[in-house]
Amino acid sequence: MQKIRAxxxxxxxxxxxxxxxxxxxxxxxxxxxxxxxGAAVGTVISGGTTxxxxxxxxxxxxxxxxxxxxxxxKSSVVQRITNSGVQIVQRGDNLTLILPSDxxxxxxxxxxxxxxxxxxxxxxxxxxxxxxxxxxxxxxTDNVGWxxxxxxxxxxxxxxxAHYLWRQDIDxxxxxxxxxxxxxxxxxxxxxxxxxxxxxxxxxxxTIVEPDDL
Length: 214
What we know:
By secondary structure, this protein is α+β, with helices and mostly antiparallel strands. 39% of the residues lie in helices and 16% in strands. The protein has a single domain (2-209), classed as CATH 3.30.1330.60. It has a 5-stranded mixed sheet with strand order 1-2-5-3-4. Strand 3, helix 7 and strand 4 (174-179) form a beta-alpha-beta unit. The relative contact order is 0.15.
């Protein structure tokens, strides 16, 4: 596993060198996933305070058996999703999709943007082929406005995404939704770009390990 991770990081360095990207140091370590095609299909928000990693394509050995294999088979879907501004990040045992709220919702409301239904359908297609997983949808905002309202909006946005995915017949053991408002920012709220980065929805996937899988 360490060898695989090292290869992934090496591929990331090649990608970043070619693209001239600037990735900052985070307070928690993220895992870089090397692109099977050699092209970067994800982005990293710089200047944040939580773990992040550039995802270039998919590598089942790094992500983990079932989820990694599914993402590898659906590499064209992954490409479309990341081209739409969604990031795919591995944090420990979790694989997380990060959706920019400004794109997926109408003007800071919990109303989904119809123009992004196709992206949500692609996400559902990825998840539909997985079993024995839990899905947690979490909403976040920037620090503008009242904290209680921000928490409520972030929760309602997370619920809207969770309900949409649930209606797509995803075979998941459990899908939950919650919102933390302006808590846990991934970028500085001192700039408009940082505030936009903090307005996000995270869809975290975790494989369920059962006794008969051990």
